Amino acid sequence: MTALLLVGGLVIYWQSSGDSGPASAPATARRGGQVVASVRGEPRSFNRFVASDLTSVLISELTQGRLVRINRNSFELEPWLAEKWESSADGRTHTFHLRPGVTWSDGTPFTSADVLFSLRAVFDPKVESPIASALRVGGQPIRAAAPDPQTVVFTYAGPSGPGVGLLNSLTILPKHKLEAALDAGTLATAWESKTPLTEIVGTGAFVLREYLPGQRLVLDRNPRYWRKAADGQALPYLDRLVLEMVPEQNAELLRLQAGSTDLTYTELRSEDYVAARRGEEEGRLKVIELGVAPDADAFWFCLKPDAKKGDKRFAFVQKPEFRQALSYAVDREAFAETVFLGAAVPIWGPITPGNKVWFWPDIPRYPHNVDKAKEILKSIGLEDRNANGTVEDASGTEAKFTVITQRGIGSYDRGTVVLRDAAKAVGVTLDIAPLEFGAMLKRLMACDYDAIYMRPLFTDLDPAGNMDFWLSSGSTHLWNLEGKSPATDWERRIDTLMLEQASSIDPDRRKMQFEAVQKIFAENVPVLYFAAPRMYYAYNARLQGVVPSVQRPPVLWNADSLSVTP
Amino acid sequence: MARFLVRRLFFAIFLVFAVSSAALFLTRLAPGDVTAQLGAFASAAEVERTRAQFDLDRGPVAQWALWMSRAARFDFGSSFLYNRPVGALIRGAAANTATLAVVALVGATLLGIPLGIITGSRRGTASALIRGVSLVFLSIPPLLTSLLLVFIASRTRWFPAGGMTSVNAVDLSWSAWLADVALHLPLPALALALPLAATFERLQAQSMTETINQPFVLAAVARGVPANDVIVWHAWRASLRPICAIYGLAIGALLSGSFVVEYVTAWPGLGRLMYEALRARDVYLVAGCAAMGALFLAIGSLIADMLLAAADPRVREAQAS
Hints:
The structure holds two protein chains of two kinds. By secondary structure, chain A is an alpha+beta fold. Chain A folds into two domains: about 1-290 and about 540-565, D-Maltodextrin-Binding Protein, domain 2 (3-Layer(aba) Sandwich); about 300-535, Dipeptide-binding Protein, Domain 3 (Dipeptide-binding Protein, domain 3), CATH 3.10.105. In chain A, about 25% of the residues lie in helices and about 20% in strands. Chain A is built from 15 helices and 26 strands. In chain A, the strands form eight sheets. In chain A, strands 1-2-7-8-12-11 form a six-stranded antiparallel sheet. Chain B is mostly helical. Chain B has a domain at about 85-145 and about 185-320: MetI-like (MetI-like fold, Orthogonal Bundle), CATH 1.10.3720.10. Chain B has helices at about 1-30, 45-55, 60-70, 85-120, 125-140, 140-155, 175-185, 185-210, 215-220, 225-240, 240-255, 260-265, 270-280, 285-310, 315-320, and strands at about 80, 85. In chain B, helix 4 (about 85-120) packs across helix 8 and helix 8 packs antiparallel against helix 11. The interface of A and B includes residues 52, 441 and 442 of A.
């Protein structure tokens, strides 16, 4: 039962322990069995505070706990190691009551001291934790106090839009195992992937049993896991979860079809959909639609003024009209059809319909119109004066660019070809240069490119969790990384709006402010988006309790509720 | 003989030195580096820290010199990808590759040599059929053989479709673990052994045909020695020289890592390790894998020379001098 109460200046979000922990179980859920899932790479570390690679994050989610969790299917905040909390009316103080009886996998009781330790560790300068920035409010670290072993009071430096949701990022680590390393300044190297697995304890559904580099990670059921199913059964259902290292997606699909893997790490590629459906018809697989992807392939020019000094093309590339014309030039329906083989929806901004909370359907659009595109180009002085098929400005500088992209990705290959043809139709010449990922990345970071086509991933569905993308000083402000100051007036306006919405606790106001941000973004099109793919996921038909998510990992986020048929 | 062995030892050291140095330089000079593995938007501090950790902040020559000085003390650096010492990783992978190579070599020998003796000494439908099958296996690239076997394994479930152990190997006793490995061996071993057996068969058949027409064989026949004894004890022994020559190269090639087969069949050997290291530009792991591959190649050619000496007294005499 959930209730929202207003009592004496306190907004109290209360959730009873009776229905917060239990998971709704599939009708025929059965204890036992094992599931084999594939992962792409080795874990860098078993310490979530220092590793942010996908495998390390997944292992952390399977073996560790948090005070609260954002349900990746409903996007609702759920009590986890904390069974309830209260927030002050100004949104600065949050009092958490820890779930009683929770123990670490080695039997040590979980207390508020572990929470305080985790917060101290994550902000320790020697740890240099990549998740620390997500736990700052107004640039200041969250502070905490523990009046008793079951209570923690968090104090934010100011109001925060995501509020308690920020703590979804805070993995709680065991004080009794890691305090000595933190005190010695060696926490950054504690729990590396070569650490004996018996040293690693957690409050998650599984414990690490075996790690064979290059082969697999074996996780066994944590017998001390706190969560119960609705029918009272102890979770997780599975006795064992095996993560096989399968670095290549073709091999991953083959193993799924052969039944040697139950779950793949990512969604299906468009080109694999038919093969997966065939497996479903034969009764071996189940194919589900996860929804529209929250991330989409994107195209942008380097708009860093310092890096483009002396490049005559920058005079027109920096004009929003030039990018608007390109946006008009692309037929997004055809793009979705060709690039994603029909399994995609047209989009006009970075927030796709897959982000149900923050998607704004009324964002300014650029319907396919070649004549209008040409007209806009002409209005900024770009015409094909020498009839060679490429427009140029009055000084003869041609609108000709090299687009770099990552080599060997099917959707990138198709996307850049469609884009090249669409641009050609309005007189803009794009040469495609597929590069090895590392080389592409190097150029991206140095702004040593004309234009780029790739899929940047948002780390959070809440815009306040992606400030690095929106703020002009951000490290993922794609078109002008880590600018010293806003390069344009519209970027300055976005900065202001984003800082306001990130520190507002009024959801309606936040939504309104973010719509204004999306409008400015769409009008100035620093990054062009064309289509967001529909995500399909295939898994072994013997699996039960699958609750899909558009965020990765699509199924294992809910691993404690998975079960298998005999 | 001692001089020969010393000479070979120096050759092996030189080979390991040259190949690992070349691998290190080429990996270093190729576009991109291991920091790409940190992800698209790792912080500059994180990138710099990683570069310093793997000596990428030094010039290629300085890095090579540093690595060499450490390697002389058997410290081959650390792998970024696996976050552990290269030496330990290579030891495990080399043992796996050696296991696979030995099984494949024994299989190819037991299959290829007798078939070569038959096709080289007899005419008829059976010989023609064997020759045809050999040509097919010689023509198919190992990638296709591996994929075909993986497909058959996944369809029939006669044997596991990949890996070296099953996912429950952690619970198995030592003997059960060995049985589990043995169950996983046929797929990659066959993928390696079939083309090799075809090579042995073709070489043995050709050499056998030439030897059978030699005067000493005809003399043995004329003396009334039974045909089978002539073939096995006279002709076969004399026809072994080309087989021994190719045998060493085959050992070296198998041991130095059969990239494609190990990759497709998910066998955790040297080839697969090197492939992953190359993909990630994991410079010290690449150099370490290359060094081990070169060492195996040197061992393979040493074995070939010794086999040749055993089979041919002229070679023995040359080596002794």
